Amino acid sequence: MMKTFLPNLDALTLPQQVAQMVVVRASGFLFDHEIQYPVWEPPAARLRHWVEKLGVGGVILLGASAGEIALRTQQLQSWAAVPLLICADVEEGVGQRFSGATWFPPPMSIAEIAKRDLPLACHYAEQMGRITAEESLAIGLNWLLSPTVDVNNNPDNPVINVRAFGETPEIVSELAVSFIRGAHQHPILTTAKHFPGHGDTSIDSHLELPVILHDRDRLEKIEFPPFKAAISAGVDAVMSAHLQIPALDPNYPGTLSQKVLTDELRHNLGFEGLVTTDALVMGAITNRYGTEEACVLAVEAGTDILMMPLEPEKAITAVCAAVESGRISRDRIQASVERIWRAKQKACAIEIPSKEGHAWENPPEPVLQTSNLTDSIAQPEALSINADLLRQSMRFHHPNPSRLASLKSVGRNLVIVDSILDCDFLGRTAPAIAFPTQFGFTQVEIVDRHTPYIDLNNRDSSPTLLQLFIRGNPFRGIAGLTQAAQDWFTYLLNTDRLFAIALYGSPYVLDRFIPSLPSDVPYVFSYGQMRSSQAIALETLFQSRTS
């Protein structure tokens, strides 16, 4: 059992205390030339300066393989005088962000199972939490930015969508608590997001500030219950939402609102853990407030963690200046750092100090054990549970077993995605590309938003397997059908060339297709877009041909 330890905060200067409240973004790749988002991800020298000299409290990672992340987290911790909180948005398992690890379908897939078997759904949610925690710890992550506890009751929501555990507060609460219970079988931090609730908006807060006009009665019935359930389950952190609810605060968005973070979350809901902002690079905040003022307002509002400010040094300087001017009290900063220290005692294994100094001054050297890594990532049990979840949440329609067997000529395998440049789940050997060829669909065509306009009236008459990869697209503000997908679907219907559909991602797109889909056209729907999902879905779609 880890011993409780709250250090003497006087040992840290004000800038060091404020730096502990900052979590910076970094690439998971070790080499600068591999950085994918240079606006947000610093080169190694600057990152090391932030960790080693500024003493930031944590790092959020994106990109690379699970093996490389294990090296990256070891490197980061070796630079830090105070052990770091290292986090990632692994709402769908570690493999969602870091290749090689287990990649689950999105949480709404479990809600699909809950409609007919809630105990089974809770079992899957708990296993997802447990496996995600195990694989995260194996590669050096100690803070899960999950579960999402927003109630997605708006099909046009581009930012939450299938990331939610469902469309009702009852189901979301049950599944989120199960996920937390599974994750807490291990010493890792969990996060309920996005308070006070981001499920009913059609505006993407990555781009603009959504405004939700619900009254308090509605919030108490729909948005708040999953957060209350997560808090009761011992969730370690709550992430704020970049949206404005005038019924709670007519002046500020939730992330910058004392009425939301302190009055509602701390006082009314009784939450005592970490409060973190959502990413402060998102347009809903930066477009209106900029880095420095946003960080000061967030601390005034009651946040403990400033997640991913675009300019960390300016953020630290601005908050320090606000303290020196009397705008923010020193007690307010110390209260946050104390909460951060309690979190680090759990996640970073900080022990009681010895006579040689404080424990955070001499953290143990992290050692990468290759055998432990390969014995902990994507194990047969995890892959089996993942496959079961994919099958249990899948929808399919086989009206005519002989239809797919009736292909008389070369068929077109038409794959429509948002951006092929960002599709790690597609490639020459991906099931969506390779599997249909054995059934005659050898004419592969991939269309995305970068594809020049095509006059469909001049297309050939090949029978077509239509495969659509469509789900919410943060930073693009898209929740459903692209124009290209709609145009192709209409064309294939009108010319009687639509042989079958495989849809991966959003159930709301399927719901819009079904009313106009001829009853004799088979389809399969999977919440997942990864290769394992493609394989299971296509095997199901073509099972009448192979049986």
How does this model look, in words?
Helix content is 38%, strand content 12%. It has 547 residues and is of the alpha/beta class. It folds into two domains: 353 residues, TIM Barrel (Alpha-Beta Barrel), CATH 3.20.20.300; 153 residues, Glycosyl hydrolase family 3 (Rossmann fold), CATH 3.40.50. It has a six-stranded mixed sheet with strand order 9-14-13-12-10-11, sandwiched between helices. It has a five-stranded parallel sheet with strand order 4-3-2-1-8. Helix 7 links the parallel strand 5 and strand 6. The N terminus is likely disordered.
Break the fold down into its secondary structure elements and pairings:
Elements lengths: L13 H7 L1 E6 L16 H11 L3 E5 L3 H14 L5 E4 L19 H7 L3 H21 L4 E2 L24 H15 L7 E5 L20 H17 L4 E4 L17 H11 L5 E3 L6 H19 L4 E2 L4 H13 L5 H18 L22 H5 L5 H14 L1 E3 L14 E5 L14 H4 L8 E5 L16 E7 L12 H12 L3 E8 L1 H7 L9 E4 L4 H11 L1 H4 L1
Parallel strand pairs: 1-2, 1-8, 2-3, 3-4, 5-6, 6-7, 10-11, 10-12, 12-13, 13-14
Antiparallel strand pairs: 9-14
